Amino acid sequence: MWIFKARLIWGIVAGAATLVLVVTGALVILVGGLASTEQSNQDQAQSGCVGGVNAVPAGNLGPDGEVPEGSIAGFDTEQIQNARTIVAVGKQSGVPAYGWVIALATAMQESALRNLDYGDRDSVGLFQQRPVSGWGTVADIMNPVKSAQAFYGVAAHTGNTGLLDIPGWRKMQVTAAAQAVQRSAFPLAYAQHENEARALVAALADGVSAADLKATATDVSCTIGLAGISTTVIRPIQAGLAVDQGNYGNSGSNWANMHTGNDYSAPCGTPVQAAHGGTIVIESGGGWGWAGRWLVKVQTAPGNLTTWYAHMQSLSVREGQMVKAGQVIGQVGSEGNSTGCHLHFEVHPHGGGYLQDQVDPAAWLTKNIGKTLEATKQAAGLPGAGQVGASPAAVSGPQVRLAQANIKVTLSRSRYRSDLAEVMEHGPDFVSLNEAQSRTVSDISVRGYGTYRASADEYGTRSQALSPVVMWRTDRWVAVDKGTVQLTKPVTGVKNDNRYATWVVLASSDGSGRISVISTHTMTSPANSPQARKDEAQRGFAKLAGLAQGLQKYGPVLVAGDLNSPYPRNGGDGDPWGPKPLMTKAGMTSTFEALGAPPQGWATHDGGGTIDWLFGSNATVTAARQATFKLESDHHGLVADFDIRGQ
Q1: Residue range of the domain that includes 437
Q2: Strand 243-244 vs strand 295-299: parallel, antiparallel, or unpaired?
Q3: pLDDT digit string, tens, across residues 447-457
Q4: Where are the beta strands (DSSP E) in 311-408?
Q5: CB of 312 within 8 A of CB of 284?
Q6: Same domain (yes/no): 436, 357
Q7: Domain Endonuclease/exonuclease/phosphatase spans what residues (predicted)?
Q8: Same domain membership, residue 460 and residue 570
Q9: Is the pTM of this model over 0.85?
């Protein structure tokens, strides 16, 4: 679903044996290109391990990392001084020496180590950074210290992604790590400068060894467990060979509901690898025509982690074949509903179907690359156990109570705990909390309740990922699965629009079934903001709706949160970028729509807005009653009872 950009057309030539590039005035011949990489991958596929492709050659360094005589010949005083600056900034910022190599190779490619006041469009400086892309002012970028800080990701003048922001960069090839920062139209061009960059670092910095100037490990693991036991996660296309279009959750004419995966643009013929171990499932014909001749799935076990691969032009696997992470399964193509060469990649943690349980592939990869995932096993005695491939039974019959409370982040701990105690006075089965990012674990803990939110170790102690919290009564419910999904990404010039949803699947302790609860805190109202911000909000609600619809596979779903979009009290859909139409399409109905105004009136905020919502899946849930209650926070508490129906 991605239109191939003209500046990337060169990549199609990579199927030939030789690429010829003209870089900084010199004719450079790269033998092999992508074709040799593909062949190498295929040669090693039988072992299930694509190893060695990211190995870093020693180049012209001596055995102890020393620089042989004359190795920096050809660099003039200006270039050496700029190289010294780049190395010094990296050292002062605590960047490992391998990062200095990446930075120098990047500057060699972009500017030949010269502080240029010109470039492609508005690009200037050592790294050819663009003011229009948020790298700073021209003065910032023309300052070698500031431009180096920006490349490393330690600058105060820009929030753009730098090297230290790239997960696993120390394991990447030089060219892959450089491309992750630069996002160049020529992602493989940095590789030609690796050896010279290492030589320069060794000449300019004391105390570095050859090992310091190499990647710490290959990016592709060779210690893979068999499917159904454990599996290491890798990229579906080798690092540096594809561009992530970041279009999960998008809406448009190409997609009937929402874009349920991510598109990774790469030249047709680029090898596609299994992102983890598993068994091959091949879907074709019928409703799978959008994927091309085949939709390939790698399944760890029925009802467990499954990834999807679409639009491939050829396959290297067969139905039922067991593969390991990194094994080549096919080639990038443009088959089916496609407008250019790319891989459509989906992640389904629970093995669901279309619009069921899919998550943002980019976020999932960022979280899991390099990790070994244990296959989920059905717990003895839980509904669905022993029925291979069957969905767990849903809770049926009881009435449950859900409470929502956005307790203001600036309240003191004592006032926060007072508000939380007020919430608990209503005896909820489940609680959704918002603005909890600055709260400790003890702040959000209540005797008799389990609590889940995102990990501070992973996201940072004040990240918006920690804002939504799900709580549940431990005498009635057991958490059997949980996770956090990013809904919206930053929009230039606007604060606090990284927003998330946290979800928990719970099994009833009496064995009656399962129910899912989602807590979310969506971005501050974009009502008076530019259209780009409204579009991002709409994408966020589409992702929330997709998550809710996917979890319906397991039975009833409840959603709660401060949605920062007012309920349309006078009918209609409300904000054109808002939640009502998308959640309705996902089979979710708000308590306001089902019951009208709470007895206390519409307001859920001191300002009079009705911006805190509760939803239930209308196929399995009926809202029975609701109420609001005052808190010290600027938001009111919202509570509702839901009758659970059989499916």
Answers
A1: 398-644
A2: unpaired
A3: 889 899 988 87
A4: 314-315, 322-323, 328-331, 342-348, 372-374, 399-406
A5: no
A6: no
A7: 418-635
A8: yes
A9: no
